[in-house]
Amino acid sequence: MPTPGKKPKSTAKRAAKAARSPRQPPGIVLAGPPGQLRATVSVENAVDQRVTVRGLVLHREGEAPVSAPATALIPPGATAEVPVTFRLDPTTAPGEHTAEVEVGGVRRAALLHVEPDLSVRVSPRRTLAAPGRQAVTLLVVNDGNVDLALARTTRARTDDGGPDPGPDVVLEVADPPTVGPGATATVSANLDVPADLDPTRRHVARIPVGTADLEVIVLPRTASETPS
Fold first, then answer.
1. Distance CA 102, CA 57 (A)
2. How many helices (H) and strands (E) are present in the chain, helices listed first?
3. Which of 92, 117, 133, 205 could form a disulfide with 144 if both were Cys (CB 3.0 to 4.6 A apart)?
4. What is the pLDDT of residue 225?
5. What pLDDT, on the 0 to 100 scale, is given for residue 105?
6. Which of the two residues, 6 and 64, has the higher pLDDT score?
7. What share of the chain is helix, strand, coil (3-state, %, to 5)?
Protein backbone atom coordinates (compact mmCIF):
# COMPACT_ATOMS: atom_id res chain seq x y z
CA MET A 1 0.00 0.00 0.00
CA PRO A 2 1.23 3.54 -0.70
CA THR A 3 2.63 5.38 2.29
CA PRO A 4 0.04 7.85 3.66
CA GLY A 5 0.66 11.35 2.39
CA LYS A 6 2.72 10.16 -0.60
CA LYS A 7 1.42 9.79 -4.13
CA PRO A 8 2.44 6.80 -6.24
CA LYS A 9 4.90 7.54 -9.02
CA SER A 10 3.24 8.37 -12.31
CA THR A 11 4.04 6.58 -15.57
CA ALA A 12 5.73 9.76 -16.86
CA LYS A 13 8.03 9.90 -13.85
CA ARG A 14 8.90 6.23 -14.27
CA ALA A 15 9.76 6.78 -17.92
CA ALA A 16 11.89 9.80 -17.02
CA LYS A 17 13.75 7.82 -14.38
CA ALA A 18 14.25 5.00 -16.88
CA ALA A 19 16.04 7.36 -19.26
CA ARG A 20 18.95 7.91 -16.89
CA SER A 21 22.34 6.60 -17.94
CA PRO A 22 24.74 7.04 -15.01
CA ARG A 23 27.25 4.51 -16.35
CA GLN A 24 27.83 6.50 -19.56
CA PRO A 25 29.28 9.99 -20.11
CA PRO A 26 26.46 12.55 -20.04
CA GLY A 27 27.13 13.74 -23.59
CA ILE A 28 25.76 12.05 -26.70
CA VAL A 29 27.88 12.45 -29.84
CA LEU A 30 26.20 12.33 -33.23
CA ALA A 31 28.24 12.39 -36.42
CA GLY A 32 27.62 12.42 -40.15
CA PRO A 33 26.31 14.67 -42.93
CA PRO A 34 23.15 16.66 -42.14
CA GLY A 35 20.84 13.99 -43.52
CA GLN A 36 22.45 11.12 -41.58
CA LEU A 37 23.54 12.21 -38.12
CA ARG A 38 23.98 8.94 -36.28
CA ALA A 39 24.65 7.77 -32.75
CA THR A 40 23.98 4.86 -30.43
CA VAL A 41 22.28 6.11 -27.27
CA SER A 42 22.64 4.11 -24.06
CA VAL A 43 19.35 4.03 -22.10
CA GLU A 44 19.09 2.46 -18.64
CA ASN A 45 15.80 1.24 -17.18
CA ALA A 46 16.06 2.17 -13.50
CA VAL A 47 12.49 1.19 -12.56
CA ASP A 48 10.90 -2.14 -11.68
CA GLN A 49 8.87 -2.62 -14.86
CA ARG A 50 9.57 -2.86 -18.55
CA VAL A 51 9.95 0.44 -20.36
CA THR A 52 9.36 1.08 -24.04
CA VAL A 53 11.35 3.76 -25.84
CA ARG A 54 9.49 5.09 -28.86
CA GLY A 55 11.41 7.72 -30.76
CA LEU A 56 13.98 10.34 -29.75
CA VAL A 57 13.85 14.09 -30.25
CA LEU A 58 16.75 16.41 -31.05
CA HIS A 59 16.59 19.96 -29.69
CA ARG A 60 18.77 22.83 -30.94
CA GLU A 61 18.50 26.44 -29.84
CA GLY A 62 16.61 28.48 -32.40
CA GLU A 63 15.63 25.41 -34.44
CA ALA A 64 12.47 23.31 -34.56
CA PRO A 65 12.71 19.94 -32.75
CA VAL A 66 13.63 16.99 -34.97
CA SER A 67 12.16 13.56 -34.24
CA ALA A 68 13.76 10.26 -35.18
CA PRO A 69 12.32 6.75 -35.03
CA ALA A 70 13.86 4.50 -32.39
CA THR A 71 12.27 1.55 -30.62
CA ALA A 72 13.52 -0.42 -27.64
CA LEU A 73 11.82 -2.57 -24.98
CA ILE A 74 14.03 -2.47 -21.87
CA PRO A 75 13.54 -4.97 -19.01
CA PRO A 76 13.79 -3.76 -15.39
CA GLY A 77 17.38 -2.94 -14.41
CA ALA A 78 18.69 -3.44 -17.96
CA THR A 79 20.43 -1.05 -20.33
CA ALA A 80 19.71 -0.86 -24.06
CA GLU A 81 21.89 0.53 -26.83
CA VAL A 82 19.48 2.38 -29.09
CA PRO A 83 20.72 3.35 -32.59
CA VAL A 84 19.24 6.57 -33.94
CA THR A 85 19.58 8.69 -37.08
CA PHE A 86 18.48 12.32 -37.22
CA ARG A 87 17.87 14.17 -40.48
CA LEU A 88 18.62 17.88 -40.26
CA ASP A 89 18.17 20.63 -42.80
CA PRO A 90 20.57 19.69 -45.65
CA THR A 91 22.15 23.17 -45.53
CA THR A 92 23.23 22.80 -41.87
CA ALA A 93 26.79 24.13 -41.77
CA PRO A 94 29.62 21.64 -41.17
CA GLY A 95 31.34 21.75 -37.80
CA GLU A 96 30.38 21.20 -34.17
CA HIS A 97 26.95 22.17 -32.83
CA THR A 98 25.61 21.80 -29.29
CA ALA A 99 22.19 20.22 -28.82
CA GLU A 100 20.08 18.05 -26.54
CA VAL A 101 18.56 14.64 -27.17
CA GLU A 102 15.28 13.90 -25.47
CA VAL A 103 14.90 10.29 -24.33
CA GLY A 104 11.78 9.26 -22.43
CA GLY A 105 11.03 12.84 -21.48
CA VAL A 106 14.57 13.54 -20.26
CA ARG A 107 16.93 15.81 -22.18
CA ARG A 108 20.59 14.88 -22.35
CA ALA A 109 23.44 17.04 -23.64
CA ALA A 110 24.58 16.22 -27.17
CA LEU A 111 27.33 17.30 -29.54
CA LEU A 112 26.79 17.21 -33.29
CA HIS A 113 29.74 16.65 -35.61
CA VAL A 114 28.24 17.74 -38.94
CA GLU A 115 30.35 16.63 -41.89
CA PRO A 116 30.67 18.51 -45.20
CA ASP A 117 28.16 17.28 -47.77
CA LEU A 118 29.11 17.90 -51.42
CA SER A 119 25.85 17.39 -53.25
CA VAL A 120 25.36 19.12 -56.59
CA ARG A 121 22.87 18.65 -59.42
CA VAL A 122 23.18 19.98 -62.96
CA SER A 123 20.34 20.28 -65.45
CA PRO A 124 20.28 19.15 -68.14
CA ARG A 125 22.36 16.15 -67.11
CA ARG A 126 22.80 15.11 -70.75
CA THR A 127 23.04 17.09 -73.97
CA LEU A 128 23.57 16.38 -77.65
CA ALA A 129 26.42 18.21 -79.35
CA ALA A 130 28.16 18.39 -82.71
CA PRO A 131 31.73 19.24 -83.70
CA GLY A 132 32.48 22.92 -83.22
CA ARG A 133 31.40 25.52 -80.64
CA GLN A 134 27.86 25.80 -79.28
CA ALA A 135 26.19 27.69 -76.44
CA VAL A 136 24.61 25.83 -73.51
CA THR A 137 22.66 27.01 -70.47
CA LEU A 138 22.99 24.99 -67.29
CA LEU A 139 21.02 25.04 -64.05
CA VAL A 140 23.31 24.21 -61.12
CA VAL A 141 21.66 23.30 -57.78
CA ASN A 142 23.69 23.03 -54.57
CA ASP A 143 21.93 20.49 -52.33
CA GLY A 144 24.91 20.33 -49.96
CA ASN A 145 26.06 22.42 -47.00
CA VAL A 146 29.23 24.08 -48.37
CA ASP A 147 29.86 26.76 -51.00
CA LEU A 148 30.54 25.47 -54.50
CA ALA A 149 32.82 27.55 -56.74
CA LEU A 150 32.50 26.60 -60.41
CA ALA A 151 35.58 26.53 -62.63
CA ARG A 152 35.89 28.70 -65.71
CA THR A 153 37.23 25.84 -67.86
CA THR A 154 36.67 22.09 -67.51
CA ARG A 155 37.29 19.31 -69.97
CA ALA A 156 36.77 15.58 -70.43
CA ARG A 157 38.11 12.96 -72.83
CA THR A 158 35.73 11.53 -75.39
CA ASP A 159 34.96 7.82 -75.34
CA ASP A 160 33.82 5.95 -78.46
CA GLY A 161 33.81 2.49 -76.87
CA GLY A 162 37.33 1.67 -78.04
CA PRO A 163 40.42 1.00 -75.91
CA ASP A 164 41.87 4.51 -76.22
CA PRO A 165 40.33 7.82 -75.10
CA GLY A 166 39.74 10.45 -77.74
CA PRO A 167 40.34 14.21 -77.72
CA ASP A 168 38.81 16.51 -75.13
CA VAL A 169 35.45 18.23 -75.12
CA VAL A 170 35.83 21.60 -73.35
CA LEU A 171 33.27 23.55 -71.32
CA GLU A 172 33.92 27.29 -70.96
CA VAL A 173 31.85 29.19 -68.36
CA ALA A 174 31.67 32.90 -69.09
CA ASP A 175 31.16 34.14 -65.53
CA PRO A 176 31.60 31.22 -63.11
CA PRO A 177 29.59 31.75 -59.92
CA THR A 178 29.95 30.45 -56.38
CA VAL A 179 26.74 28.61 -55.50
CA GLY A 180 25.86 28.66 -51.81
CA PRO A 181 24.18 25.85 -49.84
CA GLY A 182 20.60 25.42 -50.97
CA ALA A 183 21.03 27.92 -53.82
CA THR A 184 20.50 27.60 -57.57
CA ALA A 185 22.46 29.33 -60.34
CA THR A 186 21.80 29.65 -64.06
CA VAL A 187 25.11 29.34 -65.91
CA SER A 188 25.86 30.40 -69.50
CA ALA A 189 28.66 28.43 -71.14
CA ASN A 190 30.11 27.22 -74.42
CA LEU A 191 30.92 23.68 -75.48
CA ASP A 192 33.88 23.08 -77.77
CA VAL A 193 33.73 19.70 -79.52
CA PRO A 194 36.74 18.54 -81.58
CA ALA A 195 36.18 18.56 -85.33
CA ASP A 196 38.25 15.43 -85.97
CA LEU A 197 36.00 12.90 -84.18
CA ASP A 198 35.28 9.77 -86.22
CA PRO A 199 31.83 10.49 -87.75
CA THR A 200 30.92 6.78 -87.83
CA ARG A 201 31.07 6.41 -84.05
CA ARG A 202 29.11 7.72 -81.10
CA HIS A 203 31.28 9.72 -78.70
CA VAL A 204 30.55 10.45 -75.04
CA ALA A 205 32.31 12.84 -72.65
CA ARG A 206 31.43 13.46 -68.99
CA ILE A 207 32.49 17.00 -68.14
CA PRO A 208 32.73 17.95 -64.45
CA VAL A 209 30.43 20.71 -63.21
CA GLY A 210 31.35 21.01 -59.56
CA THR A 211 30.84 17.49 -58.20
CA ALA A 212 28.25 16.67 -60.89
CA ASP A 213 28.79 15.57 -64.50
CA LEU A 214 27.40 16.95 -67.72
CA GLU A 215 27.22 14.09 -70.21
CA VAL A 216 27.92 15.30 -73.74
CA ILE A 217 26.90 12.96 -76.56
CA VAL A 218 28.08 13.31 -80.16
CA LEU A 219 26.03 11.04 -82.42
CA PRO A 220 27.27 9.39 -85.64
CA ARG A 221 26.70 11.66 -88.60
CA THR A 222 27.24 11.94 -92.33
CA ALA A 223 30.75 13.26 -92.92
CA SER A 224 31.05 16.42 -94.95
CA GLU A 225 32.44 15.85 -98.41
CA THR A 226 35.59 17.70 -99.28
CA PRO A 227 35.40 19.34 -102.72
CA SER A 228 37.97 17.96 -105.16
1. 5
2. 1, 17
3. 117
4. 47
5. 86
6. 64
7. 5, 50, 45
**Domains in the chain, ordered, with CATH?**
11-18+27-114 (2.60.40.10), 120-218 (2.60.40)
For 179-191, letters b (16+ CB in 10 Å) and e give bebeeebebebeb
Whether 140 and 210 have beta carbons less than 8 Å apart is answered as yes
Name the nearest CA neighbour of 21 among 85, 98, 103: 103
Q: Who contacts 126 (Cβ-Cβ below 8 Å, separation ≥6)?
A: 214, 215, 216, 217
**Does position 14 have pLDDT exceeding 70, yes or no?**
no
- 20-75 tens-digit pLDDT: 443 444 589 999 999 999 999 999 888 899 988 989 999 999 999 999 999 899 99
List beta partners, residue 204: 159, 217
- pLDDT of 227: 43
Predicted TM-score (pTM) of this structure: 0.78
> Which alpha helices (H) appear in 4-160, and where do they start and end?
11-18
